[in-house]
Design goal:
Length: 512
């Protein structure tokens, strides 16, 4: 069958998608390398499946729905439709091109526990996102875990609506949960697939099906303890007995649970410590929480004695009050004397040795606070020249903050920024940052001022925040640069800075 598909190399689909290279096929599909011409040429993958099955229209509708999804760990869909190759009626879907997939690596070697954790966490994030949209992945397996632009992504062409009647138009395999053979699709169906993929990733072999055909598959004893426990709880024949995505994440990342337990959080099984939190409302700072009610005064069970008229009852409080008053009398002069020394030392410091630093640069994690006494502050001497830098765009993590900032400051060079779009991570994700996460995105702008492409110039330590920054940069709008009165392409470097207080962007034109 591969030879039959390969002969279509060089053909063009819908007069815009050239089949440049045959990449591979299965019994029911084939994948080619193609190229998107607009807005800037770039590689993509085009997948074909036969259209002669009852659910063809529903599958095409799901591809169109998937094209509207956006998540850093989900492969993007650019286009889809119907076509003919020879005598074959086909459906096609154009997807983001991936350099490799896990199915290509496992025949060579098994994954290490560290590598397994690196693919498992992003996969959990993507599944949380899909389930929140009412969709299940439908066929999670090693070949559908892909690497695109140094980021792990799940394929998005097999999605199924949660709650729909499962109808497989292919041969079922070990990655398909039992309920997919005629039952209803659920999020737990993906949990089963994840467990099977986890076992194969660590052993190079998928789990063996139960001998009776209806029991739980066996998990080899060679699977490390943490992953073995997760796999066994994923591969339950009865979906109600399988772990949830949150429980998997809790077992995989116990450290956030420990911190939550110290803070008085609820049961660990209900916590989902994912990099993309499920909650939509930001956490309330402790300082803004209402004060706890005072405990009731404990009263003695015995009857209160009659009040005594002893003079000591009044003498002792009077003596304590006098002692406090005397302390204040002696302390107040010392306090004013100390303040006088502080005020007098301020001019001396201003006229001191030039070797003394004028200011201390704050660190990322603990910004310095500088306070001034209004009574001793001197007016600043006029500067010979003042270098002005455009204020960065800032996005607060408050739920009422706008995402877009219009009429941004002019950037250096001929180009001009018309519209800045800043990432809007969930508040709980921002709260996990210590210091500042910096991501630099290189943006290519066409002569009309539209972003034709964007790529990570410096991704920083977090793939999640890097993905948000790249996505935001693609939505910026510019006034096109000019050269001798003619519009020319331009390039920009946008540095996004994520910190617990918000997001800032620092754009800089680098060409022309």
């Amino acid at each position: 069958m591969s030879e039959d598909w390969k002969k279509w190399e060089g053909q063009t689909i819908d007069r815009k998608l050239p089949l440049r290279q045959f990449l591979g096929s299965t019994e029911h599909s084939a994948v080619f390398l193609t190229q998107l011409a607009e807005p800037q040429p770039k590689n993509a993958a085009i997948k074909f499946i036969f259209a002669d099955f009852p659910g063809a229209d529903a599958r095409l509708a799901l591809w169109k729905r998937a094209a509207q999804l956006s998540h850093p760990n989900l492969l993007g869909i650019f286009d889809c439709g119907r076509c003919r190759l020879g005598e074959n009626n086909l459906l096609y879907v154009v997807m983001e091109y991936a350099e490799e997939n896990l199915g290509e690596i496992l025949p060579q070697r098994a994954l290490t526990p560290e590598e397994t954790r690196e693919f498992l966490n992003p996969a959990l994030d993507a599944l949380v996102y899909l389930h929140a949209k009412g969709l299940a992945h439908g066929h999670l397996k090693p070949s559908n875990l892909l690497a695109a632009q140094d980021c792990l992504k799940l394929s998005s062409d097999t999605l199924l609506p949660i709650g729909a009647q499962a109808e497989l138009h292919r041969v079922a395999d070990i990655y398909d949960a039992p309920e997919l053979r005629g039952g209803q699709v659920s999020g737990k169906s993906d949990v089963w697939s994840l467990g099977a993929t986890l076992v194969e990733g660590l052993t190079q072999q998928p789990p063996a099906a139960a001998a009776q055909g209806s029991g739980d598959p066996s998990v080899p004893g060679s699977v490390p303890d943490v992953f073995g426990e997760i796999a066994r709880h994923c591969l339950r024949a009865h979906e109600n007995q399988r772990w949830t995505i949150g429980e998997i994440a809790a077992r995989l990342n116990p450290a956030p649970l420990a911190a939550a337990a110290v803070a008085g959080a609820a049961s660990p099984a209900k916590i989902a410590p994912l990099s993309v939190p499920l909650a939509t409302e930001p956490a309330v700072p402790l300082a803004k929480l209402p004060a706890a009610a005072r405990p009731p005064v404990r009263r003695s069970a015995t009857p209160q004695k009659a009040r005594s008229n002893s003079p000591f009852e009044y003498f002792i409080p009077t003596l304590l009050g006098a002692a406090v008053l005397l302390g204040l009398i002696f302390a107040i002069p010392k306090i004013f004397h100390f303040q006088g020394q502080s005020a007098s030392s301020a001019p001396a410091a201003a006229s001191g040795s030039p070797a003394a630093p004028a200011a201390v640069a704050p660190s990322d994690s603990a910004p310095a606070k500088v306070t001034h006494d209004e009574s001793t502050r001197k007016p600043a001497e006029p500067q010979a020249e003042a270098t002005l830098t455009p204020a960065p765009a800032v996005l607060r993590t408050d739920s009422s903050a706008p995402v877009r900032t219009k009429n941004a400051s002019d950037a250096a060079g001929n180009g001009q920024i018309l519209d800045q779009v800043l990432p809007q991570p969930p508040a709980k994700a921002m709260a996990t940052i210590q210091g500042t996460v910096r991501v630099v995105v290189k943006v290519h702008v066409d002569p009309a001022g539209n972003v034709s492409d964007a790529e990570l110039d410096s991704p920083g330590p977090s793939k999640y925040f890097a993905g948000l920054a790249e996505k935001a940069a693609r939505q910026w709008q510019f006034a096109g640069a000019e050269n001798d009165g003619h519009g020319v392409p331009s390039e920009w470097l946008i540095r996004f800075e994520f910190s617990p207080s918000g997001v800032r962007a620092f754009p800089k034109q680098t060409a022309p």
